[in-house]
Amino acid sequence: MRERLGGALEFGGVVLAAALLCSRGLDSGANYDEGVYLASADALGRGERLGEDVFASQPPGFYALVRLAVALPGESIESTRTLFVAVAVLGVVAAWSLGRTLAGRLGGLVAAGVLLTAPAYAAESARVAADGASVALALGGLALLAAGLRRESLPLALAAGAVLAAAVSIKLLVLTALVPAVGLLLTLGVSRRLVGAFLVGGAAVTAALLAVYARVLGALYDDVVAFHADARSAGEGLGANLERVARSFDPRLVFTFLVAAGAVGWLVRAGRPRSLAALWAWALASAAFLAWQRPLLDHHFVLFAAAFSVPAGAALGRAAEGRRLAVAALALVVLAGSAQQWRRSDRLAAPEPDLAAAAAELGALVPEDGVFVTDVPLVAYLAGRALPGELVDTSAVRFASGSLDADCVLELVDRERIRVVVVGRYFRVEPGLLARLEARFPLRRELGKLTLLTRSPAAARAAPPAAPGSCA
Questions:
Q1: Is the pLDDT confidence value at 141 over 70?
Q2: Which has the least CB within 10 A, 125, 366, 421, 448?
Q3: pTM of the predicted model, to two decimals?
Q4: Is residue 167 part of a domain?
Q5: Which of 283, 315, 347 is the C-terminal boundary of a domain?
Q6: What is the Cα 151 distance to its own chain's centre?
Q7: Closest CA to 100 of 321, 323, 332
Q8: What is the DSSP string of 270-321?
Q9: CA nearest 137: which of 84, 77, 189?
């Protein structure tokens, strides 16, 4: 009874700490990617098809998650982000459970604590984004797998495979979690029945997704896999990526010292759990992935944060076990690291007034059932207006990869008989695109950093529809 009560109190403390820190960014300004995903969810809600009508930069599981988030009560970005905060909190709970299974009660608490000191995890928790959600679910899958192997539980092993497959369906970068999964199977004892259950769980989720999206698998492959392969040309080289990975161990961060101490403690501590080697292997695999990834962006470091936090925290907890002074010192350091991330969250961007002004203009210019085109998709969400599915993402990476070009944009503008274009990002720098848009939309109005280009309703009706071409 006493042990159960202690476990419940630990669980409640982890949930409370995670909820407080992960929700800090709920009211921050939305970034470009969030606008893309919200516009994508809107297009899917109108009946357009993922991959075929709506450009999908992520696997389909992510868009199912976004649509669920949008369906929650409330009509604000904050209400939509609530589901992603909840998933991030579950990720911290999973880190606690995984550390507890492999390194004892203190190992679990410190693993969760170190994750909360990681800048990328804290910063991405309240974002409508794939990285944080996929990494949190991957932690959940690994926690279920470790518990299932320890208890020789077929249901837990089955659930572990299903959750890991769901994580991959949200973002492919968590394929790296297969490294610790295999490591746990090897170090905790391989049982054919448990391995079979794990594989069946993963296969079931994968088969269900393949069945649902069978008609558009080719298009999804082009968007999710081929697009990112082509986008590698837009990134920097291996040397620059390695430098960024090294810089992520900023000596000013408490997280850096905790990871370093955890690694040293695991290496020199006698009787260390062999199973933690599987998690350290994930850390190395994640660092290698980030070095290979092009372009390497800030949100990719959520994977790095989780992969290093859990083995470091578990190792520190195991090393401090039974030493009251070490436990107290460790608690103070983790608390300081969490406070550091709390302060850093104050730097998250505030909402841009230009977007609200443009959204108000669009409310008058575009009917509720109408569509317009922009390279700042968040404006569409704020205005409650729709974008063509193929143009929900007009980022520099899409242009650089060849997934989108000026001819395609203009083709869709003509085909949809667009009356309004809002320019604020890459439409300004793509060679020749802005001039060709201005030729079609002669009325111009500046709204801070944004430009509204319009043409009269008569001109829009008179414009001949474009024949299907590269954007068909």
A1: yes
A2: 448
A3: 0.92
A4: yes
A5: 347
A6: 31
A7: 321
A8: TT--TTHHHHHHHHHHHHHHHHH-SS--GGGHHHHHHHHHHHHHHHHHHHHT
A9: 84
